[in-house]
Amino acid sequence: MTRLANFCGLLCIAGGLISFSACHPERGTTEEIPDVVSYDYNIRPILSDKCFKCHGPDANKRQANLRLDIPESAYAALKDDPNEHALVPGDPGKSELFRRITTTDSSEMMPEPKSNLKQLSPFEVKLVKKWIEQGAKYEKHWAFVPPKSPPVPEVDHKDWPRNTIDYFVLNKMEQKGFEPSPEADKEHLLKRLCFDLNGLPPDIDMMDRFLADKSPKAYEKIVDELMARPQYGEKMALHWLDIARYADSHGYQDDNYRSQWPWRDWVIHAYNENLSYKDFATWQLAGDLMPNHTKEQVLATGFNRNHKITEEGGVIDEEYRVTYVTDRTNTFGKAFLGVTIECAHCHDHKYDPFSQKDYYSLFSFFNSVKEPGLQSTVGGPETYAKRPLMQITNDDVKGILKFVNKVDTSRLIVSVMGDSEAYRHTYVLKRGNYDAHGDEVFPATPKAILPFSSSYPKNRLGLAEWLFNNQNPLTARVYVNQVWEEFFGRGIVKTLGDFGMQGDLPSNQQLLDWLAVDFRTHGWNIKRLVKQIVMSATYRQSAVITPDRLRDDPDNVYLSRGPRYRLPAEFIRDMVLASSGLLNKTIGGPSVNPYQPPGLWESTTSGRGQLASYRQVHGPNLYRRGMYTLIKRTSPPVELGIFDASNRDQCEVQRMRTNTPLQALEMMNDPTVLEAARVLAAKLLEEKTTSKDKIYTAFRLILCRKPIATEQAILDSYYADQLNSISREDAAKLLSVGEYPVPANLDKVRLAAMMKVVDAMYNLAEAITKT
Amino acid sequence: MDKEFLEHALNINRRKFLSRLSLGIGSIALGSLLIPDLFSGIKDDSGSDFVPGVPNFAPKAKRVIYLFQDGAPSQLESFDYKPYLRTMFGQELPASVRGTQILTGMTAGQKSFPLAGSYYDFKQYGQSKAWVSDLFPHIGGIADDICIIKTMYTEAINHDPALTFFQTGAQQGNRPSMGSWVSYGLGSENKNLPAFTVLLSKGKGNGQGVYSKLWNNGFLDSIHQGVLFSSSENPVLYLNDPEGLNRHERRKMLDKLSELNNISASEFHDPEITAKVQQYEMAYRMQTAVPEIMDVSKEPDSIVKLYGPDCLIPGTYAANCLLARKLSESGVRFVQLYHQGWDQHSNLPMEMAGQAKDVDQASAALVTDLKQRGLLDETLVIWGGEFGRTNYSQGKLEKKNYGRDHHPRCFCIWMAGGGIKPGLVYGETDDFGYNIVRNPVHVHDFHATVLNQLGIDHTKLTFKSLGRRYRLTDVAGNVVHDIIS
Questions:
Q1: Residue A771 CA: distances (Å) to CA of A302, A477, A485, B256
Q2: Which domains does chain B have, with CATH numbers?
């Protein structure tokens, strides 16, 4: 009766219409019918959105026994009327499909009015007509065909490209009649690089060095320097922590603490060591099954144990155990394959060629873990990880696990993977219900992607081998696309987690395929890929938007300008701390509780466990990077959440990027920002410089460039005004924010005035924007 | 109402038209530039025929106040009167009644399932003759204004999935909350306040937490996220300016910011910069509007008397009910309250009396207050928890003390106003209070009905995310026409 596992039902809804252009970047703004109509690019998006729900892969919902997603069925005689055919290649007039999309008789029109789907637009009808005239040819969905490295295209602007990426990008621009933007100036470039490679602003020394270095290698030197820093690993790890739904609590109602952070330290380490993507993924999926595995490889498997684990007494064990396996399966699909396999959890996928049997065949790889649904209820340190678990000893952190920042000698345990000796039989679960067993299934992968070779072991290690098979069409594309999004703010496939039929088409498939094949054939080398991206002329363009381009390509699909985006939540915090000098650069270790508005944990907790009330840290731990703030799943850090950080409830491949008044309130009143402004102001006042110089320096530290004269003048006059208008009493109040000591020797009014000028800079849109 | 509906639709179409003109500005920026409020508005990539802001038909309700009783209050000590259980006191729950119901791990191991009648007596109230227990005399007093549904049922037997199901239409996380759907669907009526607000209070009863994911926006724009109004010094996160900074100085700073931001806007032409300036202005307005709303000191004595003296103590349920009325009156679309502490696995008679004392008077007062202001017709008030409780005792059964485990098969909620039939008791359960005999109402049906009252066809309110269109009601849900007037 109880069904925890019903959540996927939502995925098969009727309703609405996707605006065609949203999934069709190729078409641009002019609606011209192409000479050759492509099934993949022009027709499938229409059929998928309007027809497949009832005439697609899901056998249970199929109407009139007609499938339009495969040609055999679409060309065949109709069951209801054997004289008619849905599609007659070359002849729209004889094609029942065409008649149904053009009729005005509401009893016959398709999509049916009751489906809540909009009729096809006249343009879409024309496309379908021409496609049928040209033979109604089907193509396999692009993402399920292995990428081949395309030839590098010819371009007119031969002096622009710096590397291969640029040829593909420029070729597209030239097709659209766009010109590349000029290279950004050095200050903006440096800020962009520093945030993209380290998640931190440059310091003044680095700015001066880069500005002074006139050599042709200046840019590359900085790139290499930033990529060699340990902060590179922190930057790269953040995105992976979202994907891996990493958190510091177990989730569910009591939501007590878990000590999973050594896994997070490993991710940072792996990026810094430039572990190949193949090893990075394989260790996480199957480190425990590798021959002669090391403790590090086992630690990596914590990836698959980061999901929520219940501690609620009285749950039905099997229900939750199945939920964990489900989470792993869904995460695998989204993170590594970029497909919404989770839709086949309760029924055959409505759009993509994944049956429910495919789902549970994949599920079976993750189903033999030696774990119960409920292992223990809220308790002490022995509950901070759940079996299977590993213990990290003090010897480990002196040796093989040197990267784990273990700060004390207490027992440290981490949840990791480990299968039972006995194979657990897996069944299709009808409607996704944990206790409704259907047919038995065995480890296998969706055939539409790539069949599972019989030479692979039928376990997670075999699954990892399958993932990195040269013929796997998705693995490389999905990862390079994720990395691309980190730098350009938009994937080449915009829907990072959906490369299926309903996902967006790539804006530049040749570029994506070239990058994917290049990445795979060069040993899945992540640093190489990153360097390739930042060295390109495409990346180095100025982010200035011309009015024409704002009109013709507002989302910068064609990459004719540089990326300009609001920073991720954690890096906003990092920017504030780093520029003020407060940042504690310690890497890894247990997560910390910095300032948080009072009462948030207390007002939502069940009252049980050590996270029932918020215990703020003091001293240097107040100033750790945002990625080390403790994430309690039922009440994740608001300072970060307001800026769209993941709540780590489930695998998240793509964050939103919103702009809200709550963000404005946070920047104005968060003690972290106010304290940073005060500390930086104090530091500046201690220097023997003019107030003009102090403002100039603060501007450089926060905005990462020199102010223009007007900007300097506005801030100078603000300072002068504040000196006159702040009372001694108000100054003392303002300076009381934060725990960092206020130097006693400074004049309070001057300090408060300078603090307000610095604070204003933190509140500028540009301060929290990658430029 | 029809005229108003038409005007509203025209107004939205005008916005939509304007938005087309400015094609090219990111949707978020657009909402903020054209409509400087929290409702970011027109999102053309919603993949929906549904035009945000335009109801599908003339709405009965404009706003919702949801008084969520977190932890699941017992139906058997509140609104489902079962004298037979008293007769059967201590006897075994017949296997035929229990059927195939799965029990939670807390009672699955129990050797015996002794039936427990209500410790509290019931009385009939009003013309509707609704039976209400002695724990809720004030709610009894408004029996003719409310519709009691005795036959709600759900699919979950644990708190987290059951709460999440009620609030988001799905048992597992990261789907938009009801309030987010309504914010997305209808937008805000007040440009200084968020469309969806959340209020928390705690009873002394056994604690069940709430989770911020319950008021999450899921895949909708985060502008639709529930904004928590707390009883602490900062009613909205980071609302208060630091000490030593007055409003005049804040204004001065915003003017400087705007000057400086405009310089970079003129260099980069990035619409996000202009949008940022607008968001700061909105924040500034909220700094005035929110404290005004939170201030109950100007409420007349009659109101304080109506809600009870607790309404002057911030953070109590009574204070939150009063606040809910004020927010709703100011145009907040969806006010979500949670009162925690309703999980009576043991000590039920005593704990439930405390919980009832917290909520009885103020819940009734809210309905009465809305009615006297002429707002009840356009405000839908909902009262209820996430599931019901068993008719047998968890643990030892004594005359004066017993507990009840979770029960998904039947429980009570009530609704008032917003076009719901007043003075109606809907649905029937068996004499054991274990199974539904007539007129079951599933959680999806409940959602469909609430949206219907707001003028929204639940099958049309969709949002496309990662390739598919989502609905609050999943693939199910039927409007319960029997309870609509």
A1: 36, 27, 15, 21
A2: 63-236+308-483 (3.40.720.10)
